[in-house]
Design brief:
The chain is an alpha/beta fold and 395 residues long. The protein has 2 domains: 276 residues, Zn peptidases (Aminopeptidase, 3-Layer(aba) Sandwich); 111 residues, 2-Layer Sandwich (Alpha-Beta Plaits). It contains 10 helices and 16 strands. The strands form 4 sheets. Strands 1-2-4-3-5-16-6-15 form an 8-stranded mixed sheet, sandwiched between helices. Helix 1 packs antiparallel against helix 3 and helix 1 packs across helix 10. The two termini are 19 Å apart. The model has no long low-confidence stretch (mean pLDDT 97).
């Protein structure tokens, strides 16, 4: 029997078990850095399967290793994130979230269950590949500083050191059965911007006696748009958006302070540093010109996610072999961000998309309170990762 057929057979064998795992995770979501019960559940499964593991990495993270023939020859790492979002689920499902205000609205339940399915498949086929497969169950993708960064700092990419790191993410824009790839720079860096405009507030009818912090904040918001639209190099996609403004005055009261929050995203690390300087310069210049002051805090977030050209080309080839070329889709860049980017800064890495739509035109997007997946995607997810892993290790 060919490798592809063996993997498909095992994916079908474990499908219902993986669905049950996914539904348990979906029903019991936990927020970033709080995945205690999720971690216990995963380790209980690994115990029942006789898989040795290390837990408590970055508090709730887990890693384990499946060794094939000549385990020191080559190592591939497979990563899944485990955390959920602060979203109140609105789906009417038998496995709807039991934790109020918390939901797997980004599909991390599918990532984790799919990776566990991959582990089951590869554990049965370990006499068919050389090298080893390291499994990474990671906390806190959704919240800075991100679980990937912390796991790396705690040595997840050592003992053994992977030659290649592979990750997948659900994607409702593709039908179940499809996967999508983008070589090179794929996802943006992400930084959080916090700005406080300070001045002498007071009665709005006496502008000569006050500093109009609201007006200054408005001017700053407008001026910051120079960065993506005028100052950014044309070839570098850039986004700067202010999403939160607090001016706690009244109809006739200008407050002493106005508070702004926003996001800055781009696809180039050098330009990212320059843009941070521009944000400071613009804010300070406007505030100073109107006798106000400004505090600026840019919280440095995830870096640019770069899909290594060589490993991504290989992975696309292997995915086409396994799924058929028509089911492997070319993707464009995304201005969303992912802490998988930290792995891509350390080692050759490939991050791809797993189609989860059932073909319904009303399929809900990621982070929606109605988000759900076509569970047939789990067969594609675990099968593709298993096939890519074996082909990579044996190449």
């Amino acid at each position: 029997m060919e490798l592809k057929d063996k993997i498909n057979q095992l994916a079908e064998k474990y499908y219902q078990q993986v669905v049950d795992i996914r539904r348990h995770l979906h029903q019991n979501p936990e927020l970033s850095f709080q995945e205690y019960e999720t971690s216990k559940y995963i380790t209980s499964l690994l115990d029942s399967w006789g898989i040795k593991y290390k837990s408590g990495i970055a508090n709730t993270g887990i890693t384990c290793l499946i060794e094939g023939i000549n385990p020191d020859k080559k190592v591939i790492a497979l990563r899944a994130d485990m955390d959920a979002l602060p979203v109140e689920e609105q789906n009417d499902l038998p496995y709807k979230s039991k934790n109020k205000g918390v939901m797997h609205a980004c599909g991390h339940d599918a990532h984790t269950s799919s990776l566990l399915g991959t582990l089951l498949i590869l554990n049965e086929l370990k006499d068919l590949f050389e090298g080893a497969v390291k499994f990474i169950f990671q906390p806190a993708e959704e919240k800075l500083p991100g679980g990937a960064k912390q796991m790396i700092e705690e040595g997840i990419l050592e003992n053994p050191k992977p030659n290649f790191v592979l990750g997948q993410h659900v994607y409702p824009d593709l039908n179940a059965g499809n996967v999508g790839f983008k070589k090179g720079v794929y996802m943006a860096s992400t930084d959080e911007i916090y700005i406080t405009v300070k001045g002498k507030g007071g009665h709005a009818a006496m502008p000569e006696k006050i500093t109009n912090t609201v007006l200054i904040a408005s001017q700053i918001i407008l001026a910051l748009q120079q960065i993506p639209f005028e100052l950014a190099p044309k070839e570098i996609p850039t986004v700067l958006s202010i999403g939160k403004v607090i001016a706690n005055g009244a109809t006739n009261v200008i407050p002493n302070e106005v508070y702004l929050e926003g996001t800055f995203r781009t696809m180039n690390e050098d330009w990212r540093k320059t843009a941070h300087q521009k944000i400071h310069e613009i804010c300070k210049s406007i505030a100073k010109s109107q006798k106000a002051s400004v505090d600026i805090n840019i919280k440095h977030g995830y870096p640019v996610l770069n899909n290594n050209n060589k490993t991504t080309e290989q992975t696309i080839k292997f995915a086409q072999e396994f799924l058929g070329s028509k089911n492997v889709i070319d993707l464009d860049i995304r201005m969303t961000a992912e802490d998988f980017a930290y792995y891509s800064q350390e080692l050759p890495a490939t991050f791809y998309r797993l189609g989860t739509s059932s073909g319904n035109s009303n399929n809900n997007p990621l982070h929606s309170p109605n988000f759900n997946v076509d569970e047939k995607a789990l067969i594609t997810g675990m099968g593709t990762m298993a096939y890519v892993s074996i082909k990579y290790l044996n190449t």
